[in-house]
Specification:
The structure is a single chain. By secondary structure, the protein is of the alpha/beta class. It folds into three domains: about 50 residues; about 160 residues, 2-Layer Sandwich (Alpha-Beta Plaits), CATH 3.30.70; about 270 residues, Alpha-Beta Barrel (TIM Barrel), CATH 3.20.20. The chain has 20 helices and 19 strands. Strands 8-9-11-12-13-14-15-16 form an eight-stranded mixed β-barrel, surrounded by four helices. The protein has a five-stranded mixed β-sheet with strand order 2-3-1-6-7, sandwiched between helices. The chain has a two-stranded antiparallel ribbon with strand order 4-5. Strand 9 and strand 10 form a beta hairpin. It is elongated, with a radius of gyration of 33 Å. The N and C termini lie far apart (about 120 Å). The relative contact order is 0.07.
């Protein structure tokens, strides 16, 4: 009854000014809805904040938040003369698992390894101070170790490597072992910047990887290896700019048949060149080591393949066979293999018109993947040449396992052929092995008529070098008659004024 009568103040109010029971309920409901909405807004804000600072796949901090905390530790080190440590970790062989088992398996591996890292850092003997674990991208992880000397940081990193070494990834009944390479750098009052610390740790990590993988490298300013790597990083930046600004182009160089035998017509090798910011030509010897070390060689191979295929499609009948170099990185990349297959499908270039050159070192380094790559494309009709043959210790031992068509004899043996009996013996043995296995031989770096005639006598099938014809820009390709220019036998007359071998095509 009291609820109906109301308070004394309410009884004194005019009736028209008193809220009805229905109005009162609406006000209560609106108040509740407002509070719920505010709660949902707070939850949404918290969720967005979490997503902005955490990696969606692993639940670890992401690179953005990691860099924020690195900035904080750098400022703390400067203001209070404290020492912290940055640990940069890159997984070894992750790409192989990702390629063999698929991206779903790769994602699951990253999730499980993230858990392993967190568990190790949470160990009582490690977690004496606050440490941060983050996924920096791909298969790279970062750790910030607060109030931690480099000596202590190395001990923690060694514990992480032991944990990863003991970890086994199970996928569809198969067990996989993984490893990691670690770069360590101190964060102290002398440190330059957060970005500089990340670059230093990244460089140290790659030195560890180059040193044999599954090891640790500590960054020091006077480290000669890191100075070299810094120079390579500058090349990487130049390569990326050249790709963006379309400053790569192709040269061509003929490979001529020097025997009077059927099917000994010559062919052409396409060679990658870069133009620098000032318009100067740069040989791949200057930039390819950095491209391979920093995993961008495949991007260059893709550029070469597209450019070469476009030229062959636009110039049908000009050459019976074109040879294209591939890096070892591409040879073990299943995504690149799929890219090559798509290029053949899109351009409709006959596969028998393409020969891929691979180095002996790259093929042997990953024999199973290399063999799969070769067999897949050879089944379409492509041919393969083993470049720089004879320089490896296991050249002949692996030759039976590699389905190649040509052996390119390294110029190291060819240049001294005229007066070096050892070089003569090596080349003779390569020619004989080639005949037994049904593979043709190509001599590189032929510089004069004497060497050319000696190669012809020994039985080498083809010759290539500046003495025959130096590389020229593909856009100047000017051999009227196309195949007729390549099918003639090289008689080897050395031009008296130019010092260059003139071939009677």
């Amino acid at each position: 009854m009291s609820e109906l009568i109301g308070t004394a103040d309410q009884r004194d109010e005019p009736l028209a000014h008193r809220p009805s029971l229905r109005t009162h309920d609406r006000l209560q409901r609106a108040l509740v809805e407002r509070r719920l909405a505010e709660g949902e807004a707070n939850e949404l804000a918290e969720m967005l904040s979490y997503q902005a600072s955490h990696d969606a796949l692993t639940g670890l901090l992401n690179r953005y938040e990691f860099e924020n905390r690195l900035e904080y530790l750098l400022q703390d080190a400067r203001e209070h003369s404290r020492e912290h440590a940055l640990c940069y970790m890159d997984l070894d062989q992750f790409k192989i698992i990702n390629d063999r088992c698929g991206h779903v398996a790769g994602d699951e591996l990253l999730r499980q390894l993230a858990g392993e890292l967190c568990d190790e850092v949470a160990q009582p003997e490690v977690a004496t101070d606050h440490h941060t674990v983050a996924r920096l991208g791909g298969d790279e992880f970062g750790l910030l170790l607060e109030n931690c000397s480099l000596v202590r940081a190395r001990q923690i990193a060694e514990g992480l490597l032991r944990r990863i070494e003991g970890f086994r990834f199970l996928w569809q009944g198969k067990r996989f072992a993984v490893g990691a390479s670690v770069g360590l750098v101190s964060i102290d009052e002398t440190s330059d910047s957060a970005s500089g610390l990340l670059r230093a740790a990244d460089s140290a990590c790659y030195v560890a990887k180059d040193g044999g993988r599954h090891r640790i490298h500590v960054y020091r300013l006077d480290d000669a290896e890191l100075v070299r790597r810094s120079g390579e990083m500058r090349w990487v930046n130049r390569i990326r700019r050249a790709l963006e600004e379309n400053r790569f182009y192709l040269d061509y160089q003929p490979i001529v048949g020097i025997q009077r035998s059927p099917g000994s017509e010559g062919f052409v090798e396409f060679l990658l060149r870069m133009e620098d910011e000032a318009g100067h030509r740069i040989s791949p010897d200057a930039f390819m080591p950095a491209a391979e070390r920093y995993q961008i060689a495949t991007r260059l191979d893709e550029w070469v393949l597209r450019s070469a295929f476009d030229w062959v499609r636009s110039n049908p009948g000009q050459v019976p066979l074109c040879s294209i170099n591939l890096s070892g990185q591409s040879l073990g990349d299943l995504d690149f293999l799929r890219f090559v297959l798509r290029q053949f499908e899109e351009t409709q270039i006959p596969p028998h018109k393409v020969c891929f050159e691979i180095t002996e070192t790259a093929a042997i380094a990953n024999l199973a993947l290399a063999t799969h790559f070769l067999e897949t494309l050879r089944s379409l009709g492509c041919r393969f040449a083993l470049d720089d043959f004879g320089t490896g210790f296991s050249s002949f031992a692996y030759l039976k396992k590699l389905p190649v068509d040509f052996l390119k004899i390294d110029g190291l043996f060819v240049r001294g052929l005229a007066d070096d009996r050892f070089d003569l013996a090596v080349i003779r043995s390569i020619v004989e092995i080639g005949r037994v296995l049904g593979k043709r031989t190509v001599a590189e770096s032929v510089e004069n008529d004497t060497v050319l005639r000696r190669l012809e006598t020994i039985g080498v099938d083809y010759a290539q070098g500046d003495g025959i014809r130096p590389p020229e820009p593909l856009e100047t390709f000017d051999w009227p008659g196309g195949n007729e220019l390549l099918t003639g036998r090289a008689a080897g007359r050395l031009h008296p004024s130019a010092g260059q071998l003139i071939l009677p095509f």
